[in-house]
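EI: anyone free to look at a 117-residue chain?
SC: sure, send it
EI:
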Amino acid sequence: MKKLFLGVFVVLMAVSFTSCRETEKKAEDAVENAAEAAGDAADAAGEAASDAADAVEDAASDAMDAAGEAAGDAADAVEGAVEDAKDAADGAVDSAKDAVKGAADAVKDSVDDADGI
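SC: here you go
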C-alpha cells in the first residue's frame, strides 16, 4: 500500500510540475504579447504626435504666408491711395492757378475797359 501511495504521489507531482511549466509558459507569452502591444501603441502615439506637429507647422507656415500677402496687398493699396491723392492735389492746384489767372485777366480787362471810358 505504501508503494501505491508513493506511486500515486510521484505521478501527481509529475503532473503538477508539467502544469506549472505550461502555466509559466502561458504567462511568459502573455507578458511578451502585452509588451509588444504596448510598444506598438507607443509607436502609433509617436507617429500621431509627429503628424500633429507637422500639421501645426504647415498651418503656421500657411498663416504666415497669408499674412505676408495681406500686408503686401495693404501696402500696394496705400501706395495707390497716396498716388491718387497726389494726383488730385496736383489737379486742384492747377485748377486754382487757372482760376486765379482767369480772375486776374478779367480784372485787367475791366481796368483796361475802365481806362477807355
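EI: The mean pLDDT is 83.
SC: 👍
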